[in-house]
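Why does residue order matter? Because the sequence determines the fold. Keep that principle in mind as you read this record.
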Amino acid sequence: METSSPQKLLACRHCDLLQHEVVLHRHHDAHCVRCGALLYRGTRARLDWMIALVLASAILLLVSNLFPIAALEKYGTYHATTLAGTVLTLYYQDRPLVAALVLGTAILVPALELCALLYMLLPLRACRIAPGLAYVFRFVLAIHRWSMMEVFLLALLVTLAKLSDLATIVPGIALWAFAGLIASFSAVAASFSARDFWGWVDAIGAEGRP
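Structure:
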């Protein structure tokens, strides 16, 4: 463990004690000297956790788009639909604006954000810095506000509840994957911070300097 400059102070989230921030070796943790609460993890450990969350979100996004999100069963007729099928249905029902909104906020924006995060984080894991890192970072911050998967899921659940009076609703694997995606995406948003990210970049840059 190496001591950082005395200007860097960190407040414990539990007891509010101000402590000097230190640079940790890989896989080491920093704990509060008063209450013992976890303050932060070493650079590589936090980076690994962030990459794991992003990869889990990417897998859940893939599953939610490849498999049926729900199915209607009535009089022996079984009709399943996917997220993409929902977009096409809205488009063919003369609702192109709603279809574009669903496509963008529930599919494209999360996919672009996850791809951008992986573009930034995976090279850091290999002790490299991706080209155009600052631009991609600003892109992630700008695009995140357009992700409204929670609103889409709520609207979908309300629609399925209304249709349950007309037919039997069978939730598909994509519905559960989409719910898990929202949870993992929220964890990504809560875990990702500019302070941590640029700390990782600085640490990689310091390791690469002679």
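Confidence is low (pLDDT under 50) at residues 1-7.
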